What we know:
alpha/beta, Rossmann fold, five-stranded parallel beta sheet
Amino acid sequence: MHRLMAILTVLLLLPVTIRAAPEAGSVAETAKREWAFTPDPALPNVLILGDSISIGYTLEVRALLKGKANIFRPVTPNGKGAENCAGTTLGVKAVERWLAGRKWDVIHFNFGLHDMKRVTETGGSRNSNKPEDPRQASVEQYAANLAAIVAKLKTTGARLVFATTTPVAAGTTNPWRDFTDPARYNAAALKIMNANGISVNDLFALCEPQLGKIQLRQNVHFTAEGSRVMAEQVAKVIAEELNHKLIRCVQRSGI
């Protein structure tokens, strides 16, 4: 009888366990994909900076802009994998390395999801599933870090585009993120972008109405279709920025 009761207790608890399933992580980061390519020296150079969400759409953007621009992102030391630019805590330390070695025409960037995730200690990288634990960067620290990153990006002379942080579904765990945080962090970021005259690609607004169709359940990551939807908008925005840059060059030359 005791054994039967124990089995019934486990079965009753099982649905709760399923509903609380942790975030599985980014398929885009672990999938075997070809990141190395030979850039065309006649084309403008575009750099995409961001976390695993941008890893999910970068190669599609490259395909959409083939023959129009060289699309780069930071890669692993062996060149075979995409580097996750994570949050602004890493960004302020690594941005100069990411920018080095090439003249950039457009830089499309985002930071946010890693900043708002719970970690065991402020500024750390060890994920936590406890809502009471600190965020990797408070919204105030995020703003300070992001402003410092923007200052570095501006020195390149590239046209800059900030992509808003995509939504977090309620109940997303491992690590814990508050579903209200993207709006708060995006608001802080937009103040910085407006003050610096930087264009904004509102991926939050693009994704929010269709999350049920394009985002994985209890997960900040997206389905292949979700990455494709974002890639189309990212490619469109980058193409527009390249056109603006070309027009400015023509105007300056007096042609």
